[in-house]
Specification:
768 residues; alpha+beta; eleven-stranded antiparallel β-sheet; 20 helices; 34 strands; 25% strand
Length: 768
């Protein structure tokens, strides 16, 4: 069954009624983050039921030894783990000597709310304990966007039927472990604990990578909103944990509240000796600001984000909730402030897929960040790859490539490859092309060419060198072929001549040669610097050109389509709708051997090429390829529905486009893949945004100009979105019979709507 317990709401994710079977799923769905840290929605109090504890700090990882059956040359040394960080949220609660535990007491009026508009998470319930005490509990938590080392919890208890002795025991704990540790290793080494008054600090260091983190807390006790200036009645401290105890008699109907400040200071941002003083500084500033103002600052910071990034949908609450959930989680994961960070596929919601960076960033996320933020944010994502170019050259050298050829990793934390499945590590090389495409896409959208002579051209040259060396001349075909690859469809491994990979390789070489010429003629100083650094000459580029001009692209005359790979037509071509429903999802029901021999496509592959290079093909070609490949596609990757939604909309197939949109926008909320308890699919959420803006809105950039072909699903009354295009903010509102454009800025902008030029003046609305 589809999970359907989340209540439809325009601005909030809401769960009503306590169900122990849903706890782990809700821990994912109600996760919070602020770009620097995040956490699953674990209960603050002790919970003896099934739970997946997870707190995470951006950029901190552990190189867990790769676990493989046997070693192959070129294998990554380690599999990077997204680390479960020390916990600061814990608050043990005891009422008249009995522990509050939702797994063992009677729970009514249970409600969780993740308020996406204002950026806070709330949980409330009534509990009846075995000792007869009934109480109302309300807990609010948020991670500050203003002070991204700070988190805030307000934990309120009201005895309902009698007076009670309430004991709060807030703690910080570095004795944590990862759910997915390969060798049951501990990843954290405790260094020191200290406490003074209501503050405590645990300093711990990761083994191997030696990141140091001070986890901190400060506690205040309130009775009916009056600060009790209480000191802990008891302090318990071990090498990796500090617990404070506060005890108070509370009359029936009175409300006792523990306000807990917590968070992390990290050696990425502070000297090791300054971690605790820095944490003390965060606490002092927060206390001076006060809880109410901290919450108001949070609301204001989120209002600013939504002002630019919101997409409104009229008449379809589930669709509206879906897109806002996706936009909210993307902003919780990455805000673009730090070019050392990137967008992990699970963000701060789980540990699966270890590693923080995949090709998802370049292929799916950059368009979202370019259009909804300042272009510097997207530039930071490109800079991240430039800063790791040396590692990409090292990665390629480990596989036998020479002369500065660069192979960017499939999965990475610091630029080194840390993915340990050979058919992906060695073969899913198309990721290299996505990085080149992102450079092209950034310039196309922002008009900022400066990135290419400053940094991008070196990246492009490394990538072009890789493709030149990776191609093999086939005397049989009298063309260049690319053998032994895995395309985006990971349900085919070790195939020859994956169309998408070959096409991308050819394009990368051509695009790099164009940029070399442009930089040579317009940026002479940069050109000289780069050429002396990389040692490129015309003999080498002529070899590249030979490969590009003679690249083999598999094609079927019979079907009139490019083939996903050489052997695709050798398969038993049974379409998905003829597959017994009991066999789905095939990745959970079939052996890997059976999947590899099947025609089933995990996600857009040939069609991914048609998405990237839409203007290289006619609409008739797109239609032919869509009709051929989509019926074999099982969409068992989170990255699949969005590309198909965009293409269905381009072809005017709005019913299909809408179905794909719902699937991508509510992938986690409705748990399509039956795995949400492991964490959310953060990077594919950017694809949801693209489904509306590029799919339904039909937005494209051609010749430095925005083009739109607006369409609207019949289920909607209207929708709107904003685009920051070259520092001019354009708002587009689409209704069943008209589209309106309005502009924030000081100079007019020309756009094309369904092929006709339209001028939009500042602060005037144009209706088409």
């Amino acid at each position: 069954m589809n999970q359907d317990y989340i209540k439809p709401d325009n601005w909030s994710i809401i769960e009503e009624g306590f169900d122990a079977d849903q706890v782990k799923a809700s821990e994912s769905l109600f996760s919070i983050g602020n770009g620097a840290m995040g956490q699953r929605a674990n209960f603050e109090e002790f919970y003896s039921g099934n739970t997946f504890q997870g707190s995470y700090i951006a950029g901190i990882y552990y190189p867990d030894k790769t676990k493989v059956g046997w070693w192959k040359n070129g294998y990554p040394e380690y599999f990077a783990k997204v680390l479960n960080a020390p916990s600061w949220i814990g608050i043990l609660v005891e009422i008249n000597g009995e522990s509050l535990d939702l797994a063992s007491c009677s729970v009514t009026q249970y409600k969780r709310e993740l308020n996406m508009k204002e950026g806070w998470y709330n949980r409330s319930f009534h509990a009846k304990l075995h000792n007869g005490v009934e109480l109302a509990v309300n807990v609010r938590r948020f991670l500050s966007l203003d002070s991204d080392e700070l988190g805030v919890i307000k934990y309120e208890i009201t005895p309902l039927n009698q007076k009670a002795t309430v004991v709060f025991s807030p703690y910080i704990d570095a004795g944590v472990h990862n759910e997915d540790a390969n060798w049951e290793e501990k990843f954290w080494e405790p260094l020191a604990t200290q406490q003074e008054g209501n503050e405590a600090f645990v300093t711990a260091r990761t083994f191997k990578t030696h990141f140091e983190v001070a986890t901190f807390m400060h506690n205040s006790l309130y009775l009916n909103h009056e600060n009790q200036n209480a000191k802990p009645t008891f302090v318990d401290s071990t090498s990796d944990k500090v617990i404070f105890t506060y005890e108070m008699q509370v009359e029936k109907g009175q409300t006792i509240a523990l306000q807990k400040l917590g968070g992390y200071t990290v050696s990425m941002n502070h000297e090791s000796a300054q971690l605790v003083p820095a944490a003390q500084n965060v606490i002092q500033k927060a206390l001076a600001t006060g809880y109410d103002q901290l919450l108001q600052n949070q609301i204001d910071a989120w209002a600013k984000i939504w002002e630019m990034s919101d997409i409104t949908i009229e008449g379809d609450v589930k669709a509206q909730q879906g897109i806002r959930f996706n936009i909210f989680q993307l902003n919780q994961t990455y805000l673009g402030k730090d070019s050392r960070l990137n967008i992990g596929p699970k963000g701060f919601t789980g540990e699966k897929y270890g590693g923080s960076t995949y090709w998802d960033t370049e292929a799916y996320c950059i368009p979202f960040y370019m259009a909804t933020k300042d272009q510097q944010v997207a530039r930071n994502l490109l800079t991240y790859r430039y800063n790791q170019l040396d590692k990409a050259i090292e990665n390629a050298a480990k596989l036998g490539f020479k002369n500065g050829a660069a192979l960017y990793p499939m999965v990475t934390m610091n630029g080194e490859e840390c993915h340990n499945e050979w058919e992906i590590t060695f073969e899913e090389i198309h990721r290299n092309g996505a990085i080149a495409f992102a450079i092209y896409n950034y310039y196309r959208f922002t008009g900022d060419y400066s990135y290419i002579p400053e940094k991008g051209l070196e990246v492009l040259i490394g990538i072009a060198r890789f493709w030149h060396q990776r191609a093999t001349y086939s005397t049989h075909k009298n063309q260049y072929v690319i053998l032994g690859v895995t395309g985006p469809n990971e349900y085919e491994n070790n195939v020859n001549n994956n169309f998408y990979t070959n096409y991308l390789a050819k394009w990368c070489i051509d695009y790099t040669m164009e940029q070399i010429q442009k930089v040579a003629s317009e940026y002479g100083t940069d050109y000289s610097r780069i050429m002396s650094k990389v040692g490129l000459d015309s003999i080498e580029t002529n070899h590249w050109k030979t490969v590009s001009e003679n690249m083999y692209l598999p094609y079927s005359e019979e079907h009139g389509v490019y083939l996903q790979q050489d052997g695709f037509l050798d398969k038993e071509l049974v379409k998905v709708h003829d597959l017994d429903k009991s066999q789905r999802p095939i990745n959970q029901k079939w052996s890997w051997d059976r999947i590899l021999r099947s025609p089933y496509i995990k996600q857009a592959d040939t069609l991914q090429g048609f998405y990237f290079f839409e203007d290289h093909f006619t609409k008739e070609q797109l239609e032919k390829h869509f009709d051929f490949y989509e019926p074999f596609t099982v969409h068992e990757s989170s990255l699949s529905p969005c590309v198909h939604s965009i293409q269905a909309a381009t072809l005017g197939r709005m019913e299909q486009a809408y179905t794909f949109y719902l699937r991508t926008s509510r992938l986690d909320l409705d748990d399509y893949n039956k795995e949400v308890e492991e964490g959310l699919h953060i990077t594919s959420m950017a694809g949801t945004w693209m489904s509306i803006v590029e799919g339904f809105g039909g937005m494209r950039v051609k010749n430095n100009t925005l083009h739109f072909e607006p369409k609207i699903p019949k289920e909607w009354n209207g929708y709107s979105f904003k685009i920051n295009f070259r520092n001019q903010i354009l708002k587009i509102a689409v209704h069943q019979n008209e589209t309106t454009f309005s502009l924030e800025g000081d100079k007019e902008i020309k756009v094309f709507v369904n092929g006709k030029e339209v001028t939009v003046e500042p602060n005037c609305m144009v209706t088409v």
